[in-house]
Amino acid sequence: MNLGFGEIAIILFVALLFFGPSKLPELGKAAGASLKEFKKAVSGIMEDEEQQSKEENKKQ
Questions:
Q1: Distance CA 48, CA 42 (A)
Q2: Where is 9: in which H helix or E strand?
Q3: Is residue 60 pLDDT above 70, yes or no?
Q4: Cβ count near 24 (within 10 Å)
Q5: What is the 3-state secondary structure of 25-39?
Q6: From CA 33, how far away is CA 39, in angstroms rounded?
């Protein structure tokens, strides 16, 4: 799903109309925090899987 500049501008404009200018910074901050937590969780899972595969290779 590729979004161009026009599509992003329309989405931001609709969000501005729907939520108002006072809520957008709060929504952006919450979205950023959620994305950061998601990346942290995915990174932790990947590290666990790498560690397990290294341990299995050592046993062989």
A1: 10
A2: helix 5-19
A3: no
A4: 14
A5: HHHHHHHHHHHHHHH
A6: 10
Domain that residue 28 falls in: 22-60
Counting Cα atoms < 13 Å in the Cβ hemisphere of 29 gives 5
Residue 47 falls inside a structural domain: yes
> What's the pLDDT score for residue 6?
92
User: Is residue 9 a part of any domain in this protein?
Assistant: no
The gap from C-alpha 30 to its chain's centroid, in whole angstroms, comes to 11
List, for residues 9-46, the tens digit of each pLDDT value: 998 899 889 888 888 889 889 989 999 999 999 998 88
- The count of domains in the chain is 1
Q: What per-residue confidence (pLDDT) applies to 36?
A: 93
Q: What is the pLDDT of residue 23?
A: 86
